[in-house]
Design the sequence.
C-alpha cells in the first residue's frame, strides 16, 4: 500500500481532465437539456488548434511563452466549432423532438472526426504534441510530471473562475434563470439565444484547456482522441449529477480515482486476480456509475436547480 | 423518467465503448481488363490509418515498389500489375470485410497482409474458401499456421492458402528471453500485454521462456489498445522491483508506456517484439525510449546489400510509413505472388487461366528464390524457412541492431 499516495495523485490528474471536459456536457445539458455528443470532438479540435499555434510559431520558441498562445489558439478553435455547431446544427432543431438534436450531435461528432482525419496534415496517425521539458518534481512520496503540473494549476483556476462567473456576473445569473425556465427568462428580457451560445462557448474553452492537458501529458493528439475522452467525461457528468457544474468536476475526480484504484488494487484482492489491472479499469468505472445511478438516480450532487447553469 | 433513460443510456454506452470505429476507408477502384493486356491486382490489407498505420503503410508501399518493378521489368509479358490497398484499421471485423471485397474482385490473384495476427484470424477462412493466396509479411502468432495446439506438439495446418514471410513468436519470444537473461543479464521481468492475439501470445511465450531460462516474473498486467494513460500501471511496475518490462503488443501503446515509465523515474528498459520495432516508437516515445530493446523478424533491412535498391526507391518516392519493419518482407511476399503468376501464365501459353487462383496457391507453396530480405520458401505449414531474428536497441534516438541469429533451443 506504499504506492497509495502516488496512485491517488494519478487518479486526481486523470480525473481533473475528465472533469474539465465534463463541464461542457453539463452546462449545455443544464440549459437546453441536450446531450452534446459532439463535445468530445470539440475537445479534439481544441487540441489541434493548440498544436497548430505551436507549429506556426518560430521553431525553438520556449514552451512557457508558447503555452498561453496555444491556450488562446486552442480555445478559439474549439469555441468557433462549438458556436458553429450550436448555430447551424442545434438551434434549428431546438423545438424538434428530443431525439433529433441527439442524432445530429452524433452525426456531427463523426463528421468532425473525419474532417480532421482527412484535412489536417498528417493527422491519420497521432501528431506529436510538445511537452514541457522539465520535472518530474517530488513532493513527499509523489512524483509530479510537468504535464500534470499544468493540470494541477489549470483545473482549479478554471473551476473557481466558472463558479464566480455563474454566481456573480449578470450573464451568469441570466444563465441560471434560463436553466430554470427558458420561456419566463425570455419574457424577463434575457436573450436566451445569447445565453445558450455562451454556455456552448464556456464548455468549449474548458474542453480546449483539457485538450492541452491531454497533449502535455501524453505528448500526442489524434483525430480519434475525443471519442473515449468524451465518453468518460459524459460518464463523469452523469456520475456527478448532470446539469450541475460542481457535480461535473466531482464526478470527474471520482471517476479518475476509481480507475486508478481499480487498476492498482483490485488484482491484489484474493480471487480477483483476473478482474484487475489496467484493462479492467473502465469496467470498474462503469460498474461504479451504474451503482450510483441505481442508488442515487440524480447523481452524486443531485440536481440543485438553483445552482444549475 | 429522464434518470431512468440516462441509466439505460449509460449501460448501452458501456457496450459501445468496445465497439469503436466504423467501416473501411480509402478503398480504390477495382481492376479489370485494360485495352493493352491483362491487369492483375495484388490486394493489400493493413492498417493504413490510426493505430499501427506507420508499419501498415510500410507494407502497402513495399508491395507498391515490387509491383512497379515487375511492371518495369515486364516480369510477366502482357500482364500489368496493380495494387489495391484496403485499410483494416487493425480491426478483425474490418479485415474480414476487406477480405470479402478482395475475393469478390476477380482481378485479384493474391493478397499481401494483414499486419495484425488477430486480423489474420478473421480473414483466413474467407481466402481459403475462395482459394485466394494470402501472404502476410508480419503475422507472427504460431497458431495461424500450426493450429491452436502447436505448443503441445500437434501441429496441424488449418489453411492451405495462408503463407507468411515472417517467422513465428514461438521462436521470437524464446529468442527475446534468451537475450534478456543471457546478454542483458535481467532476472526479474514485469510482463504486460494488450490482450490481442499477437500481443498476448508473444507475452505468454516470453514469460514461459524467461522462467525456463532462470528468470522470475515480478508481475503481469494487461492494457487495452488505444489506452493513453498508464500512470497507475507505471506506479505498479515501479514498486514491483522489476529490472525489465516486457511488452507484448504494438508501438502505439508501448511508446507511451515506456515514456511514462521513464518519466516516473524508473530507468528499466522496455523490451518488445516486432510490433514495437518501428521508427515511430522512438519518435513518439522520445528520449524515454533510449536503451529499450526489441526483437524483429529477419535481418536488419538497412544492412542488406540486396535491399539497398528497394530502400533508395522507397525514399526517392517519399512514401509515408516505416519500411524498416516489414517493407522488405512485403516486397518479397508480393514478388512470390508475381512469380507464381508468371509461372502459371507461362504454363498456359502466356494467358492467365480461368482457375488461376488455385494454381497460384500451388505456385507460392513451391516458391524458392532469393528475395531482398532473405531467401523465400515455405515449409509444409506455410511458414517461412527463413528463421532469422534480430535484437535491436534504441541507441542515440534510433533502433540499432545488436544481435542477429536464429533461435537454437
Sequence:
Amino acid at each position: 500500500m506504499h504506492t497509495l499516495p502516488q496512485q491517488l495523485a494519478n487518479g486526481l490528474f486523470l480525473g481533473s481532465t475528465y472533469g474539465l471536459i465534463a463541464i461542457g456536457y453539463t452546462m449545455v445539458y443544464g440549459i437546453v437539456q441536450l446531450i452534446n455528443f459532439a463535445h468530445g470532438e470539440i475537445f479534439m479540435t481544441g487540441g489541434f488548434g493548440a498544436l497548430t499555434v505551436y507549429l506556426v510559431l518560430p521553431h525553438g520558441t520556449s514552451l512557457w511563452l508558447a503555452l498561453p498562445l496555444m491556450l488562446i489558439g486552442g480555445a478559439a478553435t474549439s469555441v468557433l466549432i462549438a458556436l458553429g455547431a450550436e448555430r447551424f446544427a442545434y438551434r434549428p432543431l431546438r423545438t424538434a423532438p428530443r431525439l433529433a438534436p441527439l442524432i445530429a450531435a452524433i452525426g456531427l461528432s463523426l463528421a468532425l472526426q473525419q474532417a480532421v482525419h482527412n484535412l489536417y496534415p498528417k493527422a491519420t496517425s497521432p501528431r506529436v504534441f510538445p511537452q514541457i521539458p522539465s520535472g518530474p518534481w517530488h513532493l513527499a512520496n509523489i512524483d509530479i510530471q510537468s504535464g500534470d503540473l499544468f493540470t494541477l494549476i489549470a483545473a482549479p483556476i478554471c473551476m473557481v473562475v466558472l463558479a464566480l462567473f455563474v454566481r456573480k456576473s449578470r450573464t451568469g445569473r441570466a444563465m441560471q434563470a434560463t436553466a430554470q425556465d427558458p420561456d419566463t427568462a425570455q419574457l424577463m428580457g434575457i436573450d436566451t439565444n445569447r445565453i445558450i451560445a455562451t454556455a456552448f462557448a464556456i464548455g468549449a474553452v474548458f474542453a480546449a484547456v483539457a485538450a492541452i492537458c491531454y497533449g502535455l501529458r501524453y505528448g500526442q493528439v489524434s483525430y480519434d482522441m475525443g471519442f473515449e475522452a468524451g465518453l468518460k467525461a459524459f460518464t463523469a457528468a452523469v456520475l456527478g449529477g448532470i446539469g450541475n457544474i460542481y457535480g461535473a468536476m466531482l464526478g470527474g475526480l471520482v471517476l479518475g480515482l476509481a480507475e486508478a484504484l481499480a487498476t492498482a488494487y483490485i488484482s491484489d484482492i484474493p480471487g480477483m486476480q483476473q478482474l484487475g489491472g489496467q484493462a479492467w479499469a473502465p469496467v470498474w468505472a462503469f460498474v461504479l456509475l451504474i451503482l450510483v445511478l441505481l442508488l442515487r438516480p440524480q447523481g452524486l450532487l443531485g440536481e440543485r436547480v438553483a445552482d444549475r447553469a | 423518467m429522464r434518470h431512468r433513460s440516462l441509466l439505460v443510456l449509460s449501460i448501452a454506452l458501456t457496450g459501445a465503448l468496445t465497439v469503436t470505429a466504423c467501416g473501411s476507408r480509402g478503398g480504390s477502384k477495382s481492376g479489370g481488363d485494360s485495352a493493352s493486356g491483362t491487369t492483375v491486382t495484388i490486394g493489400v490489407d493493413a492498417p493504413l490509418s490510426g493505430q499501427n498505420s506507420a508499419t501498415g503503410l510500410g507494407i502497402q508501399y513495399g508491395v507498391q515498389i515490387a509491383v512497379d518493378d515487375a511492371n518495369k521489368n515486364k516480369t510477366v509479358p502482357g500482364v500489368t500489375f496493380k495494387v489495391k490497398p484496403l485499410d483494416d484499421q487493425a480491426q478483425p471485423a474490418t479485415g474480414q470485410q476487406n477480405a470479402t471485397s478482395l475475393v469478390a474482385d476477380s482481378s485479384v490473384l493474391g493478397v499481401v497482409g494483414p499486419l495484425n495476427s488477430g486480423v489474420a484470424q478473421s480473414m483466413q477462412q474467407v481466402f481459403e474458401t475462395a482459394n485466394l493466396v494470402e501472404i502476410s509479411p508480419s503475422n507472427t502468432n504460431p497458431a495461424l499456421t500450426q493450429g491452436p495446439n502447436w505448443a503441445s506438439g500437434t501441429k496441424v495446418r488449418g489453411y492451405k492458402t495462408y503463407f507468411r514471410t515472417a517467422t513465428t513468436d514461438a521462436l521470437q519470444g524464446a529468442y527475446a528471453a534468451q537475450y534478456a537473461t543471457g546478454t542483458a543479464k535481467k532476472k526479474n521481468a514485469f510482463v504486460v500485454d494488450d490482450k490481442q492475439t499477437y500481443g498476448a501470445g508473444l507475452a505468454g511465450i516470453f514469460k514461459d521462456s524467461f522462467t525456463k531460462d532462470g528468470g522470475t516474473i515480478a508481475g503481469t498486467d494487461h492494457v487495452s489498445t488505444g489506452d493513453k494513460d498508464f500512470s497507475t500501471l507505471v506506479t505498479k511496475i515501479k514498486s514491483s522491483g522489476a529490472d525489465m518490462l516486457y511488452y507484448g503488443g504494438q508501438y502505439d501503446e508501448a511508446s507511451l508506456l515506456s515514456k511514462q515509465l521513464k518519466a516516473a523515474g524508473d530507468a528499466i528498459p522496455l523490451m518488445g517484439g516486432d510490433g514495437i520495432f518501428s521508427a515511430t516508437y522512438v519518435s513518439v516515445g522520445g528520449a524515454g525510449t533510449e536503451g529499450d530493446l526489441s526483437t524483429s523478424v529477419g535481418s536488419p533491412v538497412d544492412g542488406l546489400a540486396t535491399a539497398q535498391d528497394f530502400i533508395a526507391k522507397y525514399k526517392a518516392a517519399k512514401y509515408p510509413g516505416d519500411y524498416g519493419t516489414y517493407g522488405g518482407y512485403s516486397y518479397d511476399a508480393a514478388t512470390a505472388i508475381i512469380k507464381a503468376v508468371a509461372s502459371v501464365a507461362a504454363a498456359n501459353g502466356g494467358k492467365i487461366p480461368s482457375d488461376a487462383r488455385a494454381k497460384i496457391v500451388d505456385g507460392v507453396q513451391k516458391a524458392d528464390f532469393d528475395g531482398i530480405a532473405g531467401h523465400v520458401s515455405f515449409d509444409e505449414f506455410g511458414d517461412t524457412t527463413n528463421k532469422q531474428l534480430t535484437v535491436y536497441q534504441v541507441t542515440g534516438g534510433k533502433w540499432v541492431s545488436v544481435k542477429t541469429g536464429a533461435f537454437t533451443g
About this structure: Chain B has two domains: 38-166+303-377, 169-297+389-405. Chain B touches chain A through 46 residues (CB under 8 Å). The first strand of chain B starts at residue 38 and ends at 46. The radius of gyration of chain B is 22 Å.
